[in-house]
Design brief:
Strand order of the largest sheet of chain B: 7-10-6-1-4-5-11
CATH superfamily of chain A: HUPs
Largest sheet of chain A: 9 strands, mixed
Helix content of chain B: 25-40%
Number of domains of chain B: 2
Strand content of chain A: 25-35%
Radius of gyration of chain A: 21 Å
Largest interface: A-B, 78 and 104 residues
Largest sheet of chain B: 7 strands, parallel
CATH topology of the largest domain in chain B: Rossmann fold
Structural class of chain B: alpha/beta
Number of strands of chain B: 17
Bound molecules: flavin-adenine dinucleotide, adenosine monophosphate
CATH topology of chain A: Rossmann fold
Number of helices of chain A: 6
Shape of chain B: elongated
Distance between the termini of chain B: 55 Å
Number of helices of chain B: 7
Radius of gyration of chain B: 21 Å
CATH class of the largest domain in chain B: Alpha Beta
Order of helices and strands of chain B: EEEHEEHEHEEEEEEEHEHEHEEH
Oligomer: heterodimer
CATH architecture of chain A: 3-Layer(aba) Sandwich
């Protein structure tokens, strides 16, 4: 079985979000980069678990990003995974990124393509669906459980206020949400091994971006909290009812 | 030319996020001087003509039992057929669980630029630009689409439902429907509960509650407010509450009218998922808790004393005894 895991880099979750160049660029000054949590904690770890059950499985990783994405993909290799691709391109357009991933995926004829639920910076939740369409494969989004029996996958996905169980035969594209696996910490052996694992850098295929960022902005700051004494909850209820009109 | 809105249904019922998408789509159509039309797949239990109230003149109904469960691959091909038949230039989805499955596929299929997580109407003064959330709600971006056909996935609770007068003409649409490859074998729905992403009011609690046995008072408060319940990440990780209640940067992002946070410190990763709530109330015994900085109203106090009193005070307001 061949598995492809899509890895993206995102700013550390505590990073201060500011913009430069007249609010058209994210200010990366002093930003620590991490593997997008959904890609690491759920998609990649689930792939590793599947390989632990079936040692004949291979795990390939892919990231679409510039040279600054290299430490991230190495860290992913340290967690697990046999080899990695980096498509040397920097883009925020989901269709552009998905097209790059689909091109590599087509070559590799993967049985399972895993993405994270969403990138925590761009919040598109789109790449998985686009890759699936470009490859004409079934897609299950926001999966919280993934079990495999031969070539039949049983997948639980989140729906509004509940969950749905579905069966599908491989190959399939799945986006991984919380519940699919438990976060792991890379060990020394993995880190050492990652240094020698193959990382292939390829140039992007020609694709037109469909969208572009015009500008960024920050939400207006809150006016400040109105504190109500703990022994006067009636006052809080009055404020919520009359002033905020929230209840 | 037309604006096409995907009307997501669950067990035959039109979801609230779909009503928002319809209201939004009707407004976009008005901006563009064209008509708004809806598309419904599967077997609805509601009268589709009534969707006219939300501003659509027509509803295209693809009635096929193969569409009763979501297979995004099959849905995408069907919606693409409808979109082409009505020459849709803008296609709108609710950015809910189903929308997130289908909209990206349709975007790739039609080579139509997609903005997912839209929070405002498009700005058409210079091209076509839509505001969306980025950095898990810590910022927004204006994204422009350059393709002739444009797809917008509208965030839940970002645009109000506007119901007026009117009925829509319902037309059966004859589409080619593939056999789904995804077979849905079961679904569970927490009965009677308000789905978190659709809730107007959310009552949420954190590690300050000490243990799962103390959630009774949170549920009581949620009940009188007709609210959904949520929790911080450590609470879900410790299995005090189910995973699908976890809100934040790595959980569900919500934007209710009112968010009540009880015994939650207000870590940046938690705030990322809830800071788009219109009104935030924080109950915490520590006056230094960072959450107070992001709150509109707050009580510094012991949750075990404050929350039951708050429930009683709301009962009084609502005349419930
Ligand atoms: C990469 C990453 C992603 C993360 N994603 C998320 C996420 O999505 N969502 C999330 O929630 N967290 C997330 N976290 C964790 C986050 O950093 C915090 O650790 C977490 O939100 C803290 O949860 P808490 O507020 O419930 O607990 P604590 O921080 O322990 O706070 C408990 C609070 O309860 C108060 N309290 C105690 N007793 C009482 C009482 N009797 N009455 C009233 N108040 C009381 C205390 O004063 C304190 O403020 C993430 C962390 C990382 C590193
Ligand atoms: N630049 C990228 N390179 C590789 N995979 C990516 C990239 N961007 C996003 N992905 C994958 O697609 C998922 C969804 O991303 P998004 O649609 O941007 O929210 C992420 O969780 C990753 O698994």
């Amino acid at each position: 079985m061949k598995i492809l895991v899509c890895i993206s880099k995102t700013p550390d979750t505590t990073a201060k979000i500011t913009f430069t160049d007249n609010n058209t660029k994210f200010d990366t000054n002093g930003v620590q980069w991490i593997i997008n949590p959904y890609d690491e904690w759920y998609a990649l770890v689930r792939a590793i678990e599947l390989k632990e059950k079936d040692p004949s499985a291979t795990i390939h990783l892919i990231t679409v990003g510039g040279a600054d994405a290299e430490p991230i993909i190495r860290k992913a290799l340290a967690l697990g995974g046999d080899e990695a691709f980096r498509v040397n391109a920097d883009s925020h357009d989901s269709f552009y990124i998905a097209s790059q991933i689909a091109a590599i995926a087509k070559e590799g004829a993967y049985d399972l393509i895993l993405t994270g639920k969403e990138t925590i910076d761009y919040n598109g939740s789109s790449i998985g669906g686009m890759v699936a369409e470009l490859l004409d494969l079934p897609y299950i989004s926001l999966a919280s459980k993934f079990e495999l029996d031969g070539s039949k996958a049983t997948i639980i996905r989140e729906i509004e206020g509940g969950e749905e169980t579905a069966e599908v035969n491989l190959p399939v594209v799945v986006s991984a949400a919380k519940g699919m696996a438990e976060q792991r910490i890379p060990n020394m052996r993995g880190i050492m091994a990652a240094r020698t694992k193959p990382l292939k850098v390829t140039e992007p295929i020609a694709v037109e971006a469909l969208t572009s960022v015009t500008s960024f902005g920050l939400p207006p700051a809150k006016a400040g909290v109105k504190l109500v004494p703990a022994d006067n909850v009636d006052e809080l209820v009055r404020l919520l009812h009359e002033e905020a009109k929230a209840i | 030319m037309s604006v096409l809105i995907f009307v997501d249904i669950a067990e035959g019922q039109v979801k609230k996020a779909s009503l928002e998408a319809l209201s939004y789509g009707a407004k976009v159509a008005e901006q563009l001087g064209t008509s708004a039309e809806g598309v419904v797949l599967g077997t609805p239990k509601e009268d589709l003509a009534a969707l006219g109230k939300y501003g659509v003149s027509k509803v295209h109904h693809v009635n096929n039992p193969a569409l009763d469960h979501l297979d995004a691959q099959v849905y995408t091909k069907v919606i693409a057929q409808v979109a082409q038949a009505v020459s849709a230039t803008v296609i709108i989805f609710p950015n809910n669980m189903d929308g997130k499955s289908i909209a990206p596929r349709l975007s790739a299929r039609l080579k139509a630029g997609l903005i997912s997580g839209a929070v405002a109407l498009p700005d058409t003064s210079n091209g076509f630009t839509v505001k969306k959330n980025v950095f898990s709600g810590k910022a927004f971006a204006n994204i422009s689409i350059s393709t002739p056909v444009k797809i917008i996935a509208l965030n839940p609770n970002a645009y109000p439902v506007k119901a007026g007068e009117g009925t829509a003409t319902v037309e059966a649409f004859n589409a080619t429907v593939d056999t789904p490859k995804v077979k849905v074998t079961s679904s569970t729905k927490a009965s009677g509960e308000v789905p978190l992403t659709e809730a107007e009011i959310v009552v949420s609690a954190g590690r300050g509650l000490k243990g799962p046995e103390n959630w009774g008072m949170v549920e009581d408060l949620a009940k009188v407010l007709h609210a959904a319940t949520a929790c911080s990440r450590p609470v879900a990780d410790a299995h005090w509450r189910p995973h699908n209640e976890h809100v934040g940067q790595t959980g569900i992002a919500i934007a209710p009218n009112l968010y009540i946070a009880i015994g939650i410190s207000g870590a940046i990763q938690h705030l990322a998922g809830v800071n788009r709530s219109k009104v935030i109330v924080v109950i915490n015994k520590d006056p230094e808790a960072p959450f107070f900085k992001a709150a509109d109203y707050g009580i510094v106090g012991d949750a075990f004393e404050v929350v039951p009193k708050l429930t009683e005070a709301i009962k009084k307001l609502k005349g419930i005894s």
